[in-house]
Write a structure and sequence with these properties.
Length: 127
């Protein structure tokens, strides 16, 4: 995987989604990490941790941050991270179809991987 992936969610969503994805796919590609925000964690502390994770994930192709709920603390932290770093994109509304689609197209560049994640999340919601 050339683009790093950071799942930034309320606890325990990111870890649980990664476990499920690993079970479905057999294994996870390298270059993926999660940061779960615990109730009452100071946002500055979580942002510092996410900056460290993103720096380790970025191998020159950027980092795609997936967060669960737009407007909530994890999403606000993700947007603060993107505002302070180059090559960081943020998508909110993380769901399992989004994650699986993205992991199946992990070889794509940041722009195209972002498009695949968006289409996976959107197309995975059906009536």
């Amino acid at each position: 995987m050339s683009v790093g992936i950071l799942l930034l969610t309320h606890r325990p969503l990111a870890g649980d989604l990664l476990k499920i994805a690993a079970e479905i796919l057999g294994a996870l590609p390298p270059g993926i990490a999660c940061c779960e925000v615990i109730q009452d964690t100071p946002p500055e502390e979580a942002l510092k941790r996410c900056r460290h994770l993103a720096a380790g994930l970025d191998q020159g192709e950027g980092v795609l941050v997936l967060t669960d709920l737009y407007g909530a603390t994890p999403a606000n932290i993700a947007h603060a991270l993107a505002a302070s770093a180059d090559r960081v994109r943020v998508i909110s509304g993380l769901n399992l179809p989004m994650l699986l689609r993205m992991l199946n197209y992990a070889h794509l560049d940041l722009e195209h991987l972002t498009e695949k994640a968006l289409s996976g999340g959107r197309d995975g919601v059906r009536e």
